[in-house]
Amino acid sequence: MQAKLRKRVWVPLALVxxxxxxxxxxxxxxxxxxxxxxxxVVTAFVGDxxxxxxxxxxxxxxxxxxxxxxxxxxVAAVNVDVGDxxxxxxxxxxxxxxxxxxxxxxxxxxxxxxEANLLDLQTPPLPEEIAAAEAAVASAQAQxxxxxxxxxxEEIAAAEAxxxxxxxxxxxxxxxxxQAQEGASASRIATARANVAAAELELIRARDANExxxxxxxxxxxxxAEEALEIAxxxxxxxxxxxxxxxxxAAQANVAAAxxxxxxxxxxxxxxxxxxxxxxxxxxxxxxxxxxxxxxALQSGPTEEQLRSAEAQVEQARLAxxxxxxxxxxxxxxxxxxxxxxxxxxxxxxxxxxxxxxLMDMEQL
Length: 365
Hints:
This protein is of the alpha+beta class. Helices cover 65% and strands 11% of the residues. A hairpin with a 6-residue loop joins β5 and β6.
């Protein structure tokens, strides 16, 4: 009943609205002469009015990101494929980090060194450090004073004694060379002959004793006597053979070494008697100046320029460490939001940079 009522009410209203539209269009528009070619005649009807539209388009996610490698490097792992769903923070691509980790460790060590240097400048010196610096100054001053004063009597006497000892060594080596070159004397040959005769008599007694009462002791005594005779004969033969070339060569080498030792000791004495050279005095003065400067630096403390320089080095080392840590962190590509992987631009083992993974949020299209 109500549906029919609504239909009956709607139809008159629709007709009234259509008539008003026609009247308004005729009354309000400019008066023109009818143009049969510009007019369109349609048949009036009663019914519902409707409109529709058809269009083509592309459905896109509201969030889409291409995640890039900020630090170039070799790809160690690719953990996703196209179509994989990931959560925010998941590791998508990982570069090799051995060199980057080493750079971080080196930067940390450098920062520690620079901070230690700054702390050393800011920390007052210990009493023992002052004492050590004062001792260094005293030692350098004493060395310079000794050079300027010239050699002491005891130093000269010791150097002369060294020269005489070296000369005695030359004489001794020369005598040994003469003996080696001349061969054995008659007295030495006679002594060697006597040693051979004594060894022969000892061997005869040992053999007789062993034949009379043979045992281990008498047998060993006979063997020892035979060896002693052979040694004595060898010494006699060497003396009779004349000078030995090996012995002569060794004696000549000893003479040369002794002469070189004597010349070195004589040079030391000459240098001592001539006094210090200009270069020696300059070196001693430089050592003293350096020791004095070190003592003054400890006593006065660091300058403002030194402190600022040390602070700047600490800050520079800290920035370098931050950069190294950032490079290490950039070697890991993580998902910024939960979504689906739409593209993977790198592969394991290759050296890559730039775009790595494209990620889309499919929850909001």
